[in-house]
Amino acid sequence: MSSIFPVSSDGLLRLISDVGLVLLPGLASADYGPSADWGLNLQRPVTEIARDILDLHNLILIICAIIFVVVFSLMFYALFAHRKSRGHKAATFHENSMLEVVWTIIPFAILVGMAIPSTATLLRMDDVTGSDMTVKITGYQWKWRYDYLDYDVGFFSVLSTPREQIENQADKGELYLLEVDNPLVLPVGKKVRFLLTANDVIHSWWVPQLGVKKDTVPGFINETWTRIDEPGTYRGQCAELCGKDHGFMPIVVKAVSDQEFAAWVQQQKELMAAAADKTWGMEELMNRGKTVNNQCIACHGPTGQGVLGVFPAIAGGKIATGPVEEHLKIVMDGKPGTAMQAFAEQLNDLDIAAVVTYQRNAFGNNTGDLVQPSQVKGLRE
Amino acid sequence: MATAASTYHEEHPGGITRWLFTTNHKDIGTLYLWLALIMFFVGGAMALIIRAELFQPGLQIVDPHFFNQMTTMHALIMVFGVVMPAFVGFANWQIPMMIGAPDMALPRMNNWSFWILPFAFTLLSSTLFMQGQGGAPSAGWTLYPPLTVQGGIGTDFAILSIHMLGISSVLGAINIIATILNMRAPGMTLMKMPLFVWTWLITAYLLLAVMPVLAGAVTMLLTDRHFGTSFFDAAGGGDPVLFQHVFWFFGHPEVYILILPAFGIASQIIPTFSRKPLFGNDSMVYATASIAFLSFLVWAHHMFTVGMPVGGMLFFMYATMLIAVPIGVKVFNWIATMWRGSMTFETPMLFAVAFVFLFTIGGLSGLMLAIVPADFQYHDTYFVVAHFHYALVSGSIFTIFAGAYYWLPKWTGHMYNETLGKWHFWLTVIAFNITFFPQHFLGLAGMPRRIPDYALQFTEFNQISTIGSFVLSAAQLLFLYIVVQTIRGGNKATTQVWEGAEGLEWTVPSPAPYHTFATPPKVS
């Protein structure tokens, strides 16, 4: 078979798929983004693996298309020529062992030809050795957490499309449902190893242009890797049904140069240090709290109204207008046996202070309470 | 060959008791087929809710939680409530008539296996009215934990109804095996059996092998949910992925349960309208058996992204690719049957030819999905949704239509309206492709499946798909009309019905008398 499918030579493999691209122009790979309406094929790859996958996909697609056209040309010829209305008399043959053997062997041989390049690509994908850095990805209902194990930096990444756009009360932006507050920032040209797990149910981390899709399974750790060729922003979505807001937990990867990455890491560390010591004003906390509150909307609703009997209201609610300590406690420790998670693990001191401040002053609560990050820090100890 | 018409007995109870207490294979076949048709419209209505929500970006019609209930229920109903009962209905009507038996081997059990079903589906559908307690199951028909463990009371109803459906299927399978192995007319050796009977024999063994596996899987879910076990919970030493392995050990043979009888129906119809015997009858039998055997070795190809050793992925990739060989043999044999025949294109033949053509698209996209590196891009996208609708709609549902048109004259004694039949065919086949072909592009371009809202670049193809789905659904009302019209009247059908039809069922009068082959025919 190797004479038909010279898999040892990537160049020839690509040639076959390129010839196919000329024959079937629709196969040209689309650029991602709002301009890519009518996209017909896989997104433009930005890693070697994604390119290999695209080539493999085009190759198999073209082989399948050729087989399909050949086989069904015969059928359609028969449909037109061998019909009673044209006076065709039925032949009586009904078996031919030679033919049966031939049409068993030939497909088998074609399959072997497909299996060889597939195996080669799979083995490359599976090799996670020799990585330059490691990021732990954790799936949550319905957001992602990224921990840079080598840099002691970690944060949550949540959908930033405003609720009004989803509910058709505002015009949808270009990046509707594909935008987050904190993207995963990665250096280009570095082999990044991903360790994937989940906090609650199974999710799947998928960025098409990187050619990476891997399930995040609670209690288990999966491994995969990528090496991004060019700076840019690449977007994906959760690919495993994970409940109500499965469609609303996008992934955004921002690939930057080494220098920019180093600067970004430094900046993250300074921000985290500064946040803890500074005394924050009402306006700053309210602005930040509004963003953090997006995580609460899923259950408590965009106006804090909750759902009767299931999710308590924040607007005028007992917790949000009662003692500050109780409010902080429920946000940080959650409420066992309900959907209310313990956010102490998920949010930093500043975000907890901000969201509690926000909830105590938004939705008509107007308590005037202002919670500082240092207060949260105190509670943690 | 046939017994004289005067010896047929037509007496049977009237009214509702006829249907409640019947042990007659034809009555029970009719019950199965009507149940399937009713559930087809229920499941179809759910699909329309899904497609309507997806007509444009944003949330318009339903909230995401209800959307998930619809995708889950649509699949459960179409798989267990439409395709499976329809094939059992065909089996009940046709297997005894095709092998020259007076009835099924276990007629009382036959009654029970049917009457479990309406109760099971009542149980399942009632969850839609429990919205205050979480509503219908919403974790997908694959019921993956831990998401399923989070579900409301509807999940428990679904588990119990799956148990009932499983009991019904196992009883039905036992009955079919017992009938085929014990009640064939003298002279009908196994290799002389019509292909429909053969495919059902093999399907019945698949059912016996895997329905208990599903029952085990959902029972473990139930105890994880309520009785403190941790089969699928890592915190208690279990493994969520274990469920996926067990589920797909059932699930992959299950998809062949949904398609092998379709192969059988197509293998009856194509020779009839080609006026030429089925080409490669024996190799068709061997191919069917190989497909069934291989179906037990490929389950993990549904879960390549879950994280498994590379050796495991390679094994499941190779085994899955191998299935393309016997499937190819079947397609080649069907085309060789048409080759140099004397074809006419009545509605059954149109649906059968469309089945061969469109099912092959589903088969080829299945081959693409087997290629592990590429599957990492296809998995859980609309490419998969397109793939299995090509396999199950243009595969199973089209052959169910083909079979219905083919045998309706035998069952009712009337010819259906050929013009309306052709309208039904063309509307269905065109709308089907408008609905599902663009979904290949959506998947490749990056749209995940099971999402109620999507990014803007997916809008155009989703709109085309939704428009197609509404035409497709409307065309099925025409089918209902044609069936009712044919039952109530129409041109008298002859005994043979179709010029090229051969086999024992075409030797009994049309409509087939209430009892046929009380004395077995002789097969030369």
SSE topology:
The complex is a heterodimer of chains A (381) and B (524).
Chain A: H1 10-23, H2 48-81, H3 97-126, E1 133-140, E2 143-148, E3 153-157, H4 163-166, E4 184-187, E5 192-198, E6 203-207, E7 212-216, E8 222-226, E9 232-238, E10 250-256, H5 258-277, H6 282-292, H7 294-300, H8 318-321, H9 324-333, H10 349-361, H11 373-380
Parallel strand pairs in A: 1-5, 4-10
Antiparallel strand pairs in A: 1-2, 2-3, 5-8, 6-7, 6-9, 9-10
Chain B: H1 15-21, H2 25-53, H3 64-99, H4 107-126, H5 147-150, H6 153-182, H7 195-226, H8 240-257, H9 260-274, H10 281-294, H11 310-338, H12 347-370, H13 372-378, H14 382-412, H15 418-445, H16 459-488
Task: Explain what this protein looks like in three dimensions.
The complex is a heterodimer of chains A (381) and B (524). Chain A is α+β, with helices and mostly antiparallel strands. Chain A has three domains: 10-125, Helix Hairpins (Orthogonal Bundle), CATH 1.10.287.90; 133-273, Sandwich (Immunoglobulin-like); 279-380, Cytochrome Bc1 Complex, Chain D, domain 2 (Orthogonal Bundle), CATH 1.10.760.10. Chain A contains eleven helices and ten strands. The model of chain A is unreliable at 1-9 and 25-35 (pLDDT under 50). In chain A, the strands form two sheets. In chain A, strands 3-2-1-5-8 form a five-stranded mixed beta sheet. In chain A, strand 2 (143-148) and strand 3 (153-157) form a beta hairpin. Chain B is an all-alpha fold and 524 residues long. Chain B has helices at residues 15-21, 25-53, 64-99, 107-126, 147-150, 153-182, 195-226, 240-257, 260-274, 281-294, 310-338, 347-370, 372-378, 382-412, 418-445, 459-488. In chain B, helix 11 packs antiparallel against helix 12. Chain B starts with 14 loop residues before the first helix and ends in a 36-residue tail after the last helix. At the A-B interface, helix 2, helix 3, strand 7 and strand 9 of A face helix 3, helix 10, helix 11, helix 12 and helix 13 of B.
